[in-house]
Amino acid sequence: MHLWLDISFHGYGHLAQAAEVINACAIRHPDLRLTVKCAAPREVIARRIRVPFTHIQSASDVIMAMTSAVEVDADVSARGYQAFHRDWARHVADYTALLRHAAPDVVLSNVAYLPLAAAERAGIAAAGLCSLNWADIYAHYCGGRPEAAEILGEMRAAYAGAEHFIRLEPAMPMHDLPNRVAVAPVARRGLPDRAHINKQLGLQPDQRLVLVNMGGMHFRPPMETWPRLPGVTWLVQQDWRVQHADAHAFEPLGMAFTDLLAACDAVLGKPGYGLFTEAAVNAVPLLYLSREDWPEESYLVDWLVRNGRCLEVSAAAIASGELESDLAALWAQPSPPPVRSNGAQQVVKIIAEMLQNPAV
Is residue 133 within 8 Å of 113, Cβ to Cβ? Predict the structure, then answer.
């Protein structure tokens, strides 16, 4: 089977969703031939996808422009979409030619709409796969603009033209997509090795370990000025170059991200599908900084409140590092059982059905 996978590189959540599906698919189809079209560097993709793949490093969509990890620049985003859709017919034609040359059996997109429009024109079975779609996001921020109706029409037609839009719980409603199919959460269960971390960092077993992760966005807390919290050690990404007595870079530990997350006592981040579902699946409590008016947030938070432990923290608390009381309150919450996750297997079954009944 030749599977064509298109992944939006807007943080790491889209890659996390798609990778779990691909890894499960490779078990069922050991001869899987995979092409990945994504703007992310190959090494970033290879940390998640555990099978060989051909990489086309380019973006197929206009992502929302961000001024920070939690703030969208609606004006810049609107201009980007307007320019993209000014040449919509050419974009569809170019991508259609790309697919006809590659001749995949199935196109899977998380969650650009252009490859779905092109696959429909090329007569190739295709499905969208995500907890959101860019039409709903664009409508939220830019829907009142004069050009929005035409742009939204093209976006929604592309999504609706796919054989399925596989809606990963927790998800936005997407009531206007007649082809939506709901599946369980897609998230990896990590293999925690806390003893390895403690040995590498020289930590005592009773030390609390908190992972700080902002999901690939350019948001770096001023941790150098944070106070030292008794019994708390922070894990941070290496390129932040944090100078703090209790902060350590996690890359030298040599662990996969989800294994690292599963070994921690808490995580500090922003609302995003990958972080929220992996926190719940691995029973790791989560402090989150609100993304203000990001339309997916309420669905993620409501789900995690029911299925895990979480607490919102203020931007001021993150700026000052005064997080001791928030962490205490988080750890005091009752711990529900870890979420069972079989969404990836459900998606693999849908792909198998598409192979048996290919598009004409």
Answer: yes
